[in-house]
Write a structure and sequence with these properties.
By secondary structure, the chain is of the alpha/beta class. It contains 15 helices and 13 strands. Strands 5, 6, 7, 8, 9, 10, 11, 12 and 13 form a nine-stranded mixed beta sheet that branches. Strand 1 (about 50-55) and strand 2 form a beta hairpin. Helix 3 (about 130-150) packs parallel to helix 5, helix 3 packs antiparallel against helix 12 and helix 12 runs antiparallel to helix 13. The two termini are about 45 Å apart.
Amino acid sequence: MAYSFLAHPLYDNEQNVQLSGLDSSSSSVSCYSFPHLQNVDVNDVASTWIPTLSDESGSYKRLKRTTSMGDKSSSTISRTISTSSLNSLPGLHIRDHIKTYTQRYLAAEGVQEATLAISGQDYDGETKDDGVADGMRLVQLLISCAEAVACRDKTHASVLLAELRANALVFGSSFQRVASCFVQGLTDRLALVQPLGTVGLTSATMNIMDIASEKKEEALRLVYEVCPHIQFGHFVANLSILEAFEGEKFVHVVDLGMSLGLPHGQQWRNLINSLANRTGQPPRCVRITGVGLCIEQYQIIGDELEAYAGSLGINLEFSVVESSLENLKPEDIKLRKNEVVAINSILQLHCVVKESRGALNAVLQIIHELSPKVLVLVEQDSSHNGPFFLGRFMEALHYYSAIFDSLDAMLPKYDTRRAKIEQFYFAEEIKNIVSCEGPARMERHERVDQWRRRMSRAGFQPAPIKMIARAKEWLGKLEFCEGYTIVEEKGCLVLGWKSKPIVAASCWKC
């Protein structure tokens, strides 16, 4: 069973801060459930945990708390922010003060409510006693360690990390395993922390997209086989592309990233097979252009696809554009007259989301200039790109706890496949989210609502996906365990685990 953590709207890096609804007497704790973490005295938690918020500029403020020590059954935690500290920010007008401290207040509230909710009930309303103390202690250690790292308190963080390493076991419970990945990320981030008095972090040398080992490739293949995340994206994308190509003679797919370089091009094998067996004549020419840096790997996939298409009577032309998305130029994509273009992006565009938004806007502008009939966008549906480190940390802990919980239900405890998936695939994402900043932070996942805003600003219009029944039928035929769900949300399809969104698919047109 996974631990559920608070997802706060403040952590969307473009979320407008609302100045209403900040009554400290109200709480949203009841909206979040925390399995295994019950029977904890809220006063004990509050008396030992005071969050410190930081932004990425390295500025830190500590928020004071006072705890009501009345009846434990009705205990509350009030929050106060010293108004005199407003004067510590020179050169700001009162509206700037309000916005600054509202942001810090809401971030603190999000982390605080996540901690308070530890005393809640399980999904079925039944309280469980087994593992409560250990689970509670592990959550407290993780949050406290994240706070110490954010404060650049190396001494305290090192002590907490030592205890975490002893309790976060790679072959333990689902939460112990996900905690072990966050420990790795916190360790890497602490190593990059500069002494107090300096700003930000030292530059990280790790780039998750440069990791090209046999273990990484094997883990990706196992993720594709065991988890429905990527297969779901391929299924939705292919149906949308087939609809766009209906009745067309010359069709062209531009694949951004080639699904991370998965071997054999399984997505396009399925598409080619569908085109060969569609009603009427198959297309006279099918072109696939792969965009990415693994040119040799892509060319191997392309050769296999051309041979497969030939066996089905399909004329396929495969080409590769050796370029990162950020350096892609309009002339790199060779278009032909009268061909219909479809753009395919499976877990790719989040890597070019930066603080300035310039990189993503440039890529979207190039895509728009190609005038595709459809752009299929599949992304992780979570907010891992907020302005505050602690906010991103809590969001990621919530998100990956659900994923590790699903793996716990699908694979036996000591299955080496599960360990490879967790340690060589999802752990790499977690470490990048937790330990990296600036250009090195590639895993900038955002929620589907944020992608709607970005795509609309870039001139794209939504093309609602109307295949919920077929998607549910597809999921039911697969051999994944119960617990996965597919829901339609404002024209998008969202794959989730026990109501926690995991991957969202959307379609767009010019």
